[in-house]
Design brief:
375 residues, alpha/beta, seven-stranded mixed beta sheet, 38% helix, binds pyridoxal-5'-phosphate
């Protein structure tokens, strides 16, 4: 039982074969269509396809003006890419704590406490596809005149009161890595309603060049200027074609993931001490259910649980080792105390979760965990 899995079928193979046969492999009609469809799905003005989720975060921070002497506030309980790209902008990541064992998302009160005159942006995460407490976070950002940027890598299709994650702040960043809810292999997307941000991202995505190969190919342009020091962070046609197929399946896939998490919760919470965070509280909140995370009982050994589940053929993982404990980020000047993250992190264990898990596979995970922890 792998932690995540992709479903391969004829529709995907046909889409890929169509692009390969077309002979046009880099940015072109598939990317344009994927961007159009993704923007429509999110209800945002712009969607900009990029090579991966890390590139989405990097370009968004740069386009939002993050640079040297700036600080960006973000959760330590996140994938390290977020902190790395803050650093690549020349800015300093300032880590914040989470709410608690039931809610592993950013604590708005700690975000407020972390803001300084140098703060430029708040980079929120929707942990495991669970929308973070967006209203107070937006209020804090507005009150201090800061950009709110969403690391929505876990949250394509997640929504609060019908509004999609990724559309709450200045921009939302998505990843289409193979183990994400909308997998294309590598890939990413930035959504925004801000025309200036979209223009800046478009420029930086392709070397700071004023016209693109695709436009030149169609005879729309013959030459170009370079007006910024950009990157090659483009998505290609094959990945965009896969993305279009996967986008059509996203809502149903998120729904199946939710049903599996409900089964885990119903079967496993009877175990003393083990909790599945983010118990549903409001019909307003539609999570994307990217991860099935369990908080193990306080005194159980996480490595022992991992080893014993592995003997049962069940892969588990940790999302995440907190960023502030990695060698590269430890001992940062002015490091903030993160007591909840420090208390929760050693107890987190992520269980297998993908949309096409069948009933027997779900039962196998449940029975194995009951066998390991249930006495
Ligand atoms: C996967 C992920 C990223 C990075 O995305 P890539 O496409 O792998 O570059 C960033 N943030 C979070 C929360 C992620 O899960």
């Amino acid at each position: 039982m792998p932690l995540a899995d992709v479903l391969v079928d004829d529709e995907l193979l046909t889409a890929v074969a169509r692009v390969i046969s077309s002979g046009w492999w880099s940015m072109g009609p598939e990317v344009e269509e994927f961007e159009r469809a993704y923007a429509a799905f999110c209800g945002s003005r712009h969607a900009l396809a990029v090579s991966n989720g890390t590139a989405a975060l990097h370009l968004t921070l740069l386009a939002a003006g993050c640079g040297p002497d700036d600080e960006v506030v973000l959760p330590s309980l996140n994938f390290v890419a977020a902190a790395n790209v803050v650093s690549h902008c020349g800015a300093t990541p300032v880590f914040c704590d989470i709410v608690g064992p039931e809610d592993l998302n950013l604590d708005p009160a700690d975000v407020e406490a972390a803001i300084s005159p140098a703060t430029k942006a708040i980079l929120v995460l929707h942990y495991g596809g669970q929308p973070c407490d967006i209203e107070p976070l937006l209020a804090i950002a507005n009150r201090h005149g800061l950009a709110l940027i969403e690391d929505a890598a876990h949250a394509p299709g997640a929504a609060v009161a019908g509004q999609l994650c990724g559309t709450f702040g200045l921009a939302g960043c998505f990843s289409f890595f193979s183990n994400k809810n909308l997998p294309t292999g590598e890939g990413g997307m930035i959504v925004t309603d801000d025309d200036n941000l979209a223009d800046r991202v478009r420029l930086l995505r392709s070397h700071g060049m004023t016209t693109l190969t695709w436009a030149r190919h169609r005879g729309h342009a013959h030459t170009y200027d370079v007006v910024a020091r950009g990157f090659n962070y483009r998505l290609d046609e094959v990945h965009a074609a896969i993305g279009l197929v996967q986008l059509g399946r996203l809502v149903a896939a998120n729904e199946s993931r939710g049903q599996i998490v409900s089964r885990y919760r119903a079967a496993l919470e009877r175990l003393a001490g083990l909790t599945i965070p983010f118990a549903p509280t409001s019909a307003n909140v539609s999570p994307a259910h990217h991860l099935a995370v369990a908080v193990l009982p306080p005194r159980s050994s996480r490595s022992d649980v991992r080893a014993r589940l592995s003997e049962c053929g069940i892969q588990t993982s940790v999302h995440y080792p907190p960023i502030h404990n990695f060698s590269e980020y430890a001992n940062q000047a002015g490091a903030r105390k993160l007591p909840i993250t420090d208390a929760m992190a050693p107890r987190l264990r992520t269980l297998p979760l993908y949309a096409h898990m069948d009933d027997q596979q779900v039962a196998l995970v449940i029975d194995s965990i009951l066998g390991v922890l249930g006495h």
